[in-house]
């Protein structure tokens, strides 16, 4: 048959390889102008409404008057709509979407193809067959278009190979796959909840850590440890003018051996520097790395995204560098308040004006400080101190006044150790989630492969073979075509007779 390769897998007895053009009619969508759209009438189904194989008519709905187009371009319940165009790199098209029975009338937009299956064909079965690797491989082998955008024409859709089962087996396959898909969907929903659960768990761990709950047992076993008030005395000796004013904050209770202290008391807060006007960063390693706000993620610096300062610029901004171990905090942008530690590899790097560093730390561990700054408790305080503007900004003076719950040094180290162990657990869970997601997709493809090898549901030898079903469809189509041809010939003879009698066409 046309479009069918000789290398296809062998089908069970009673099945047939077919193309969609043998069992379905099709119509291409129309290129409407934005000025045609109204807020009433018949909704237009567009590419965005069938994204990722899900029908979503609430996504940017547009309408056309009911008499705007012929009814030939109206999609009916039971029709299948196929996306023909998308991003080649992502392969985000080639989706088949079945129009449900309760759907309204829909005009078909360009870059979509609608097919109507013969009544003897189960449309849900065809949607499932379109996801089978054999059909998908053919579909994308017909891809044309530019570097980024792909497109598959009508032939690429209609001539792709589809394994056709007997009609009763089609129904059994659909029912079984829907049952299994319900299970995999529940598994996917459970998996997709893991990142959020891990994040909530991390925040719960940090909250417990900075309330003192996480190390309550440790304190009971280490009663001889000097309280943090001794650290405060050391700070005052080091800086006699120290002002630990926290009166503007409504601070929660902490263990008796802890103290509340502000950032300015335990380190220096300094800002970064932007490049001079008209200058740009370069990818070439000049020896002068520049840390942008976008490089500051997940408590560290993303080294793979680092760019560099041209050598002639470095002398102009050389005083705005960081040292390994400094604590950074972003002060502008969507991730404002993100904090972490400068790694060894970026010792001496220049820092963006969109972040600040907390350096020259005393009586506090840098990892403890960065964990506190990233905790939801501190983040709430930070958000309340962001200046109201078109783009929020955390001023350096505000950073200096931020409060810190300060335990003894030994307890800081214990907190870091316990938090690290618990957070590593969430990292492993996240890695498990990342590895399992593709396996679910593979499972769905395995289910399809088993279905279209005839192995998913029991086969009934009494089922009418697909070949007989095809013969019935062809016979009906031939009869319809012959009837249409006869009708066309009759109409033509009538027109000729009328014209021969001298009657104007259209007035007969």
Automatic annotation (TrEMBL):
Protein name in the entry: Restriction endonuclease subunit S
Q: Which InterPro entries match?
A: Restrct_endonuc_typeI_TRD, Restrct_endonuc_typeI_TRD_sf, Type-I_RE_S_subunit
Give the molecular function GO annotations. endonuclease activity
Q: Where is this region: Disordered?
A: 479-508
User: What interactions and quaternary structure are annotated?
Assistant: The methyltransferase is composed of M and S polypeptides.
Name the Pfam families on file. Methylase_S
Ranges for domain Type I restriction modification DNA specificity = 12-185, 257-428
